[in-house]
Amino acid sequence: MKKLLIVVDMQNDFLTGSLGTPQAVQILPKVAEKIGEYRKNGDAILFTRDSHDAAYLSSQEGRYLPVPHCIVGTEGHRIAGALQTDGCIVLDKPCFGSLELADQVAAGAYEAIELCGVCTDICVVSNALILKARLPETRISVDASCCAGVTEESHRAALLTMKMCQIEVIPDG
Asked: Strand (E) positions, 9-104?
């Protein structure tokens, strides 16, 4: 079975930087372990990076979330050092969800796609729903134990939303 792991926005700014949370730091070892499993099986791995420029605060997102983060070229934009990206695709995306990601994944003809990363309630859910809309017959899952949201409540709400849209949430709980 041709499988793909999408690691969403596991960047320094979402771990220990300007938008970092203890929950995001806590999932880092689990995400690294999952990446290792996919590597061992020879499956594809794709990392996304939230990517903004110096004019972020004047963007629509910047007006709603006035915290500069993931500015290209900064330490905060980098994927966490504990996660090895060698041999993986790295896709920069300018906002929560990415149509480019959906097109790239569709071209890969994967039979199963799994997502993990941050933030469950913003970027993970956005990309999972875009992928499900683009690939309605493809098995898409999200590992809840390898995701962290802005808050625990919004994390759970995003997992429920994805489940309601026929995205498998594992572990189911």
From this structure: 44-50, 89-93
